[in-house]
Amino acid sequence: MQIGVRALDECLSLQKKSKPLIYCISNSLLLKDLAECIMAYNGIPVFFSSLISDNANNKDIASLLVSLEDLSEEKIQDIEKSIRIARRRKMPIILDLIGEENSFIKKETALSIINRYNINVVIGSINEFKAIINNVIEKKEDNSRIDRFRDNIEVRVGFRNFSKANNIIVVVKSEEYYLTDGYSEFFVDREINRESFNLFEAIKLEYMLAALISVGVASAGTSEEKFISVLVAIMTMAVSEKIVVQKNLKKDSILNKEYLIDEIKDVNSDKLNKLSKIDYLFVR
Fold it and tell me: Which Pfam family is one of those matched by this entry (predicted)?
């Protein structure tokens, strides 16, 4: 399935017009790259040091992006305060499970946030989701390998049920990107080999997907528009990765980050339409 050029253009044009403010709560080491990625996708970043306050103007609020890196008791309290304010103001909330899989406190925090608040989008790898979706994903001895679950019906049903039960858009980062709202499923081909996949993992580029999604949902209006904006953000990430790999750039983490951000900045509807590959499934 391909989204029409007109729909892609409308989504991207809306972001350029609205230039939404994205409130980020994340690892301090990632903030600079998050900021560059958000700005490349026509958003405006506001960081943890500028925590949302009750006195902020509604017109300045767009979306809240929360990643679960480097959690502490104080930070968890600040995250929950921000989420409560965001809920009162009907701001979309994006939760990135990055790094969650190996930490009990991160698992408990993720479950608490998902169960207590209305989160719009949850993003993570298969192993990160494995920690919070019980009995859905079989334990794998080699967690470093690329996980493929397209043909595993039980796993996909688990993700769909999790999405429906919590009214959450689920985004899974794997050898291909997976998106579901519990009813529709999309597989977006990344067209990268194992070497490139490991490179993106090693230099922590995949967290940038959360930045793109936060800009997309902040610019959208209806639930359907939000879902489409998430899909377009995933397409943007996949196509940008593909172009970077095709250019055979040097394996330098700084260079790769800069080039990937440049590709995100240069994305347009024609490029997405020509270079993205999407498989779509609808289930009741």
Answer: HK
